[in-house]
Design brief:
heterodimer, A: 179 residues, four-stranded mixed β-sheet, two-stranded antiparallel sheet, B: 331 residues, 2 strands, globular
Chain lengths: 179, 331
């Protein structure tokens, strides 16, 4: 399996939300719905406070429980990669994939089918970065192949301390956050 | 101190807490469980030659199965968000998906349950049998079903058990929902399904001997169910932190009353006491109360299980974007 990953530098992210707007614009996400969002974690007690911003979305797990739970095959891996997609014409809207996702990263389109971040696969096919990565004004987001040791994401992960969300679920998420 | 907040996210039915499945799924799970019990009991009564002691169960109960299951399938269909694509369940089989197993189990359950109805229709519902015989192949179908009556009954038992266990495994297969992620849920829902079917017989059957038999059966099943509920709680208490958090909602948390009062007390313990009293010769004034409570308890078990499972998540935000606040900005 070819592993695509996103690496997000929490030291550079300022929580501006441009990634959210870029995603909504690029993917025509309906009003009131979000494929990505920004989480803000404030720790400590005033005046000794620290804040971390995290741009979050589907983690495109290599062991995606949503793909396993889907009874129709609508949720699937794109080709031989970890990019998880939904085929609307196969989706019954049973919501098993939503129940199976520990990140609650999926949403229900007004048309009835289930939707989620696609890593902007239509852009990836053209060799472009996802819209959120391309738009980020602080360049805190990076996208690439983990099986290429010379890719930016591989080099960043080799040089910086990183963490993933809920690795204990066993889903093997592929979004990494640099500390 | 740690505060976590999410900006610009309020996906309907996902935020602020998961609300993807409601009474429609609870009803489907409940009616699927009752149908499983009906298939098992009506087949058992035929195989064990209980027509004297349990005539309703032997000849008439089987008709209730597909009817109740179809009501459950209707509520399930109503829950689908993309209804036009419902047939997609049957264009593939996904070995990793419990829901896919459920969809295909139903393909076998319906013919087996209908065959059992045909095998007992002349004795149970002669009026319907005579109507069916007016159709060219109707008489032949009834003859064939009666000829293979025992084989049909034998098929109904494993299929009923599979259907009953499936209603629990559908939920327990979701690792992301800590309250559901227990192997006990399948057997618990099966026993509950058998118990509610026994209660249904106790409500509907006319012969006191038959009601007495199924009251005895129900007492045993309620005791087993209580044991399984205890095992489920122990399983969660000894599980990971997230499972212990799920359990805490039943001990002082949001679901304490619905679980302990409505399900355990009114749905299990009270009917157990009433039925035990009934069996010991006590004059229970409202003889139907106990089985009606068992039926209500069976539904409440599914509803509470759904509610707790959806409420406890791996991810949660202390403060979340609230779109209703935007309305205050408008003059």
């Amino acid at each position: 399996m070819v592993r695509f990953a996103m690496v997000i530098d929490t030291r550079l992210c300022i929580g501006c939300g441009d990634c959210v707007i870029a995603c909504k614009t690029e993917n025509k996400v309906p009003e009131g719905l979000n494929r990505d969002w920004v989480v803000e974690i404030t720790q400590g007690r005033y005046p000794h406070l620290g804040t971390e911003f995290r741009s979050e979305r589907c983690n495109h797990c290599t062991h995606a429980t949503c793909v396993e739970a889907c009874p129709t095959g609508a949720s699937h891996y794109w080709r031989d990669t970890n990019i998880v997609l939904v085929t609307p014409e196969r989706c019954t809207g049973c919501k098993a994939c939503i129940a199976a996702c520990p990140y609650n990263a999926r949403l229900i389109r007004p048309e009835g089918y289930i939707d989620k971040c696609t890593f902007c696969v239509h852009r990836v096919k053209q060799g472009l970065d996802p819209a959120c990565v391309a738009t980020c004004p602080t360049h805190c987001m990076h996208f690439g192949r983990l099986d290429d040791p010379n890719s930016t994401v591989s080099r960043l992960l080799a040089s910086r301390d990183a963490f993933r969300l809920l690795p204990e679920t066993g889903n093997e998420p592929q979004i990494y956050y640099l500390r | 101190m740690e505060e976590v907040l999410a900006t610009a996210r309020f996906n309907p039915l996902i935020d602020p807490s998961l609300a993807i499945w409601d009474w429609r799924i609870a009803a489907y799970l409940f009616l699927g469980g009752v149908t499983a019990g009906i298939m098992c009991f009506s087949a058992w009564a035929l195989l064990a030659n209980k027509e004297q002691q349990a005539p309703f169960t032997t000849w008439r109960l089987s008709l209730w199965g597909p009817i109740l299951l179809s009501v459950g399938m209707t509520t399930l269909f109503l829950d689908l968000e993309h209804k036009l694509y419902v047939l997609r369940f049957y264009t593939t089989f996904r070995p990793s998906s419990p829901m896919s197993y459920g969809a295909w189990i139903l393909v076998f359950v319906y013919p087996a349950a209908i065959a059992l109805i045909l095998a007992t229709l002349r004795q149970g519902y002669p009026f319907l049998a005579s109507r069916l015989e007016r159709i060219r192949i109707g008489g032949w179908l009834l003859d064939m079903a009666e000829r293979y009556r025992r084989a049909i009954a034998i098929c109904n038992i494993p299929l009923g058990i599979a259907l009953g266990i499936y209603t629990g495994i559908l939920l327990s297969g979701f690792m992301a929902r800590p309250f559901w992620n227990s192997a006990i849920l399948g057997p618990l829902f099966l026993v509950s399904g058998l118990s509610t079917a026994a209660a249904l017989v106790a409500v509907v059957a006319r012969q006191p001997a038959e009601r007495h038999l199924f009251t005895r059966i129900d007492v045993g099943l309620i005791l087993v169910e209580l044991g399984m509920v205890a095992l489920l709680l122990v399983n969660l208490a000894t599980g990971a932190r997230i499972q212990q958090e799920a359990l805490a909602t039943l001990f002082g948390g949001d679901h304490t009353v619905s679980f302990w009062l409505w399900f355990v007390t009114l749905g299990l313990v009270t009917p157990l006491a009433l039925e035990t009293w009934d069996l010991r010769g006590g004059r229970v004034r409202w003889v139907l109360l106990a089985p009606v409570l068992v039926l209500a308890g069976g539904y409440i078990l599914r509803q509470v299980t759904l509610d707790v499972g959806l409420a406890v998540n791996w991810t949660h935000f202390a403060v979340q974007f609230d779109p209703t606040l935007l309305e205050r900005l408008h003059p």
